[in-house]
């Protein structure tokens, strides 16, 4: 029996028709995908006046964590800038710190924000809390070096897309539970929040090719969890497990109506409200997973990206 699904936005449906789609991931396919070249960040920086620094910070186990620091070239050191700490997507198993970097670069342009992007270690080579711990260690470095970066420590936004959105939520929980650093807001773009993969929207996007299917999602989570049982999964890895969502930074959460993560994302926003917190939730009708990153020129994508920027403007200005 075919499960009914929300229809795709007509413009997105037409664009998606030319894209090769998959129904599941395998170790062999992942190996091939990882051989594809990294996103060309140089072309994104070519028309911008940006200073770029590449540094490494130590992980909890001493491994090097690369960070890219992108700052407006003519930053006024007398007025500390907001900071966007960017965590890339890729299902926990692929991508690097330049993946989807065009999204936070829009905020460098609009707000003069310093963008710091982290290269956390990927599953299946890194399992358990290693990726979220790497992201947290990078955030600690940013907060500790705020003066050197000309960053306002009271205006650090943690942001990420897909797996990066889930890791951003995990970092928000860690920062709350460990007493810092302060996070002004969390920007969770179609976040990957729940390893159980059992919602209605997850089941709707199963069994046929797509941008990110239930089967692909299961592969990503299996790669991250390794040998852990459900009882051993930390809420910092799978934030939907967190029993207490109080005292978190104000959140912006968006997702598409036609994607695996729709229900876990809307549930996370609902539970933040139930705990007395603040969240702004947008469910874009007809949006598939990552639609605005894949096709930023589409009308629905430009609206989604502009709406996020408007929310940040209210927060920062």
In CATH, the topology is named: Rossmann fold
Radius of gyration: 18 Å
Distance between the termini: 51 Å
What CATH first level would be assigned?
A: Alpha Beta
At the fourth level of CATH, the homologous superfamily is Alpha/Beta hydrolase fold, catalytic domain
* Helix amount: 25-40%
Structural class given helices, strands, pairing?
A: alpha/beta
Shape verdict: globular
Oligomer: single chain
Write down the overall mean pLDDT: 96
User: What is the N-to-C succession of helices and strands?
Assistant: HHHEEEHEHHEHEHHEHEHH
Major beta-sheet overview: 8 strands, mixed
Question: Please, how many helices?
Answer: 12
The poorly predicted ranges are none
Report strand order across the widest sheet: 1-2-4-3-5-6-7-8
Percent in strands: 15-25%
Structure keywords:
Rossmann fold; alpha/beta; 317 residues; 8 strands; single chain; 12 helices
Q: How would you portray this structure in words?
A:
This protein has a single domain (10-35, 48-316), classed as Alpha/Beta hydrolase fold, catalytic domain (Rossmann fold). The protein is built from twelve helices and eight strands. Helix 4 crosses helix 12 (299-316). The longest helix is centred in the last third of the chain and has 18 residues, at 299-316. An eight-stranded mixed β-sheet has the order 1-2-4-3-5-6-7-8, sandwiched between helices. The model has no long low-confidence stretch (mean pLDDT 96). The protein is of the alpha/beta class. It has helices at 10-16, 27-34, 41-45, 102-111, 130-144, 146-149, 163-177, 200-204, 214-225, 262-274, 291-294, 299-316, and strands at residues 50-58, 64-72, 81-87, 114-118, 151-161, 185-189, 250-256, 279-284.
């Amino acid at each position: 029996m075919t499960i009914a699904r929300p229809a795709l936005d007509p413009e997105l449906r037409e664009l998606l028709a030319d894209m090769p789609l998959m129904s599941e991931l395998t170790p062999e396919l992942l190996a091939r995908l990882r051989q594809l070249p990294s996103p060309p960040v140089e072309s994104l920086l070519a028309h911008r006046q940006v200073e770029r620094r590449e540094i490494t910070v130590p992980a909890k186990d001493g491994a090097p964590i690369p960070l890219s620091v992108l700052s407006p070239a003519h930053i006024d050191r007398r007025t500390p800038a907001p900071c966007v700490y960017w965590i890339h997507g890729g299902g926990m198993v692929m991508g690097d710190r330049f993946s989807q970097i065009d999204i936070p670069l829009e905020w460098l342009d609009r707000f003069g924000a310093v963008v710091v992007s982290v290269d956390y270690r990927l599953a299946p080579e890194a399992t358990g809390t290693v990726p979220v711990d790497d992201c947290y260690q990078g955030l600690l470095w940013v907060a500790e070096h705020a003066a050197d970066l000309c960053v306002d420590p009271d205006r650090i936004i943690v942001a990420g897309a897909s797996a990066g959105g889930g890791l951003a939520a995990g970092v928000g929980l860690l920062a709350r539970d460990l007493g810092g650093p302060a996070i002004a807001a969390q920007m969770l773009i179609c976040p990957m929040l729940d390893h159980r993969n059992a919602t209605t929207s997850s089941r709707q996007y199963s069994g046929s090719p797509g941008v990110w299917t239930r089967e692909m999602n299961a592969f990503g989570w299996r790669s991250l969890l390794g040998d852990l049982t459900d009882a051993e999964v930390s809420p910092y890895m799978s934030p939907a497990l967190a029993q207490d969502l109080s005292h978190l930074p104000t959140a912006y959460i968006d997702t598409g109506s036609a994607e695996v993560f729709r229900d876990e994302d809307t549930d996370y926003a609902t539970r933040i409200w139930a705990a007395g917190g603040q969240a702004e939730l947008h469910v874009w009708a007809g949006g598939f997973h990552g639609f605005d990153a894949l096709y930023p020129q589409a009308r629905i994508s430009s609206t989604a990206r502009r709406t996020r920027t408007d929310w940040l403007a209210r927060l920062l200005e």
